[in-house]
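Trying the structure run again after the queue cleared.
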Amino acid sequence: MSSNLSSKPRILVIDDDEELALLLTEFLGRYGMVVSAAAHPAEGLRALKSSPPDLLVLDVMLPGSDGFSVCRKIRETSQIPIIMLTARGDLTDRVLGLELGADDYLPKPFEPRELVARIQAVLRRGTPSPTGETLRAGELVLDLSTRVATFQGSKLDLTTAEMELLALLLRHRGRVLTRERILEETRGLDWESFDRSVDVLVSRLRQKLRDDPKSPSFIKTIWGHGYSFVGGGDDA
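Done. Tokens:
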């Protein structure tokens, strides 16, 4: 990510509601954000490629294609933070968006100030740690100063949400973290006790670590309680 909260974050909005896009452009601009908008998925993907923003706000309902397809396509090559706008806050939409790699979601209709708060939270989570902290578990290394994770010498392409979850689990190795605790620590916002979001995020992280949930090397499910990181190694 090329900018942080001390500069002017660049936000791309892909939404065919031109009135809403104009509103968000003006409103987010008041909070020091530089906003560009695209009404069509193809237009948005071109903008994303030609001038990558710091964060994407992506609507689910789009002409010619839906936001899920766009999110899936983006995740093939990029880990840019994505906040999805879901109609009516439908649970299926939220789960699917998270499974495809979205970092956050916001149901329509919403207060623009809440979107600001969620954008700021996602960008803050993606800001490198000034302490230069490095967390290790065997061949798994997470460098928080660069926000880069490697496993067996190869870089892991993690989203902001996945990186934050991995750091939290590593810091509390051997301890059981409830879903509520994970939501509180990684989100900092009210997710309406949406426990399923944690399960989806853990599943995504397991896939990238090639971790078998039935015989875990890293993340163990503690039924009825939450999750625990069981990987070996010492922190550096």
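The chain has two domains: 10-125, 134-229. Worth checking whether this holds up in the mutant runs.
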